[in-house]
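pasting UDP-glucuronosyltransferase for the record, 511 residues
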Amino acid sequence: MCSKIVLFTIFSVLSISDSARILGIFQTPTTSTQSVFQAIWKELSLKGHQVTVVSPFPLRDKSLVNLTEIDVSGTTKIFLNHDFQFFMNKERSTTSKIEALFNVNYELSEAIFEDDGFKKIYQNPNERFDLIIIQIHINPIFHTLGARFNAPVIGVSSMGGYIGSHFAIGNPNHPALYSEMFLPYHGKLTFSERWYSSFYNMWVRGYLYFKAMPRCNQIARKYLGSNIPDIEDLQKDLSILFLTTNPILYEPRPNVPIIQAISQVHLKPVQPLNQELQSILDNAKNGVIYFSLGSNVQSIYMPERFRRILIETFAELPYTILWKWESEDLPNKPKNVIIKKWLPQQDILAHPNIKVFMTQCGLQSLEESFNAGVPIIGVPFIADQEMNIKRLERYGVGLEINYLSVTKEELKGKILEVANNDKYRKKVVELNSLLNDEPIKGLEKVVWWTEYVLRHNGTKHLRGPTVDIGWVEFLLLDVISVTLIFTVLCLLILKRLICFIFTKKEKLKTK
Ligand SMILES: *[C@@H]1O[C@H](CO)[C@@H](O)[C@H](O)[C@H]1NC(C)=O
Ligand SMILES: *[C@@H]1O[C@H](CO)[C@@H](O)[C@H](O)[C@H]1NC(C)=O
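structre below
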């Protein structure tokens, strides 16, 4: 009897992980971000799980029979309505950018909750999921779906962890060692950087506590009901946090065990180019500079001055320039510049005539460049991009351009240097072999850890003491205070004692 129950339990646990019902919410409507999530939800459905996904970038692949996609591409316009120039502007403070990102995310979340297809899911009392996967970037609102469906939650980010997600799961994040990825600092921080980093840390905590979290709770409860617990508490129960970075591309750091690095998940096998692109690349005898600022940062929004410098520089280069430019025409376009609204980046980078990739240095673009062995000119705009290029310069795989201050001579010099000096290309190959030297590939790792969470219904056993420790204890304020008080008391007693002995002696002498 007993063994039957055991067998039955084992069987039901196994069958859950064999084919689980998984719900994924991925809200940020940009191609590079979604390319990571697409790879993950596709793979999980191919493993036989019943996957339902809410995303603005559905795959629409009929062969994926275990996949249900809820298309929320209408939310893309919310993203576009927010001022891109604002995000691109390096002179704006990091704190105002964080606030702006939160504001976009409130709107995105409400729009997703308002979607009729998604409503049918979260409002259906009979709907059941074994696991929720959410995009964790800035937005913690969808953590609440774990509470709604009584299922463990996995988080995925298409970059490193933002400071708030480190706080939430108790990951050590000392401001003197690991600046926030939205700050441009890298390596050993100077005094002023440590100063700013420390106060920025405090600001984020205050902002989350007093402004962001109350608003997130309010939005979640509006749609999921007032008995949804506080997001601050739900975040602490996160089962796994997948980050698409690793100690090669970001500064090595201590991580709690629920953080798993998953690089290169979005890379695809190279596809043949269309005829037009193939002949452009084949015929570029001197080589090609491929220029794209990715999907978050769009070239058409770049500052006027920088665009002028680019055009003047490109006109003087012996190369063909392939530029992802999101408009029909480019004023004063030189003859050797070819513009396209969209380009199959991975397939282009694989072409042997590509000499340099001029990129904004988003992680997905970087992984594609390394995979193809192409060195880099980095033009960072937002988020981790500036930190990324600083690290890559140290590896010797590319050079940085500051779009605010660059001159034509500097830009031309740097492009020619990276294009012609073979040492950059050699370093890229070295770096790529380091990146690939892993016991298990990124996507396999995602599947393994996801099924681990399913097998054990979460990772409560991995929850460390850092999640629940309070600030007073963490900063040892209680220990320091008690020690100080004790020391002062001892000194006072000692002083009394010495005074007492001396007066005794004096009295003896005078007698
Ligand atoms: C769909 O899931 C079933 C198991 O639930 C699996 O056997 C089958 O291979 C999956 N098919 C595809 C195309 O993913
Ligand atoms: C998983 O854990 C949750 C929260 O502890 C619990 O409510 C739920 O019943 C568990 N599910 C299974 C299948 O054991």
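The radius of gyration is 27 Å.
Residues 92 and 200 are 14 Å apart (CA to CA).
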